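User: I'm putting together a teaching handout on how sequence relates to shape, and I'd like one worked example. Could you take Flagellar P-ring protein from Thalassococcus arenae, show the sequence you're using, and then write out its predicted structure as tokens right after it?

Assistant: Happy to. First the sequence, then the structure tokens directly below it.
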Amino acid sequence: MIRLCLALICFVAAMPGVSLAQTVRIKDLVEVEGVRANDLVGYGLVVGLNGTGDGLRNAPFTEEIMTNILERLGVNVTGEQFRPRNVAAVFVTGRLPPFARAGSQIDVTVSAIGDAKSLLGGTLVMTPLNAADGQIYAVAQGTVIAGGVEAEGDAARVVQGVPTAGVIPAGARVEREVDFDFTQMSTLRLALREPDFTTAARIETAINRTMGRSAALMQDAGTVVVDLSRTGAASPARAVVEIENLGVEPERRARVVVDQRSGTIVMGDDVRISRVAVSQGNLTLRIEESPIAVQPNPFSEGETIVLPRSGAAIDEEPGIGLAEVPGGTTLSEVIGGLNALGVSPRDMIDILKSIKAAGALHAEFLVM
């Protein structure tokens, strides 16, 4: 399968008149300063569980939050002892999107923090969600949709997925808005997700070409500043609309990504290999134990003993000999040279590692 994919890439690269360079929208390459989400977190209680909640002796914080909730509702539980198994203390997390308005709804994730076995069928009681500044920005409540299944018998138990965590779609309502007035922006700072000087320069050129004036200026590899007064847009939001849909061809570093678990190899178009010779073979060591039991004759004195019998052998496959991989100037030539070795994908990973160590692989080598 790996060789088939590499051969397909080689075929596309060799087709005349086909350009592999593709433009990408600026909105997919950058983040706009001020336009970001904010993380929220809260501490609450899930009720209505079918005997799969926290053991209050092992999770005293569950009893504490139950007491606080009941007392806020006017129920006096001072001095009482709780022993229910249908409640669980949880952390509730979510993200407040940029420009979220009061009354809008967001998704939240619920995760047990005690020894609860499952949150299936539970309901989250009203839980305030705080941001990093300590202020409450949303309130969550609703039925938990757990992401796992659990079945248990007298002598066996099976669990699939994670039943101690779940989500509540649109389970939190925004109560406070982030104090940020986008209309007062005089400049826009575009932060590249993958900083690169060439990509930043191309973004600057594309914006200035469209606006017809020097509105954009590249500060560094990760930042392009846009002067809104020179864009001619009616508002900062209109300027963002015009800028984020411009097409730019991003420049990326040459990179080889390897997944050792599946044997997957992915190469970028800019990968180059200098001329190098490679020899590859496998060495197999086998050790076998075949002990023999020796017993005394019938009705005679003696003991049964075990005699060891071992066999050891070393097998070495012929390998590919010393093969030359010519220097590749294009991705198709690199693939052709590596495929000429005629080895499996996992052996190819070891060969690429060795070529990188020899200084002949001119690319960033990432192992997952």
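A couple of points you could highlight for students: Helices lie at 2-14, 60-72, 197-211, 236-244, 331-339, 345-357. The chain has three domains: 23-34+181-248, 38-174, 255-367.
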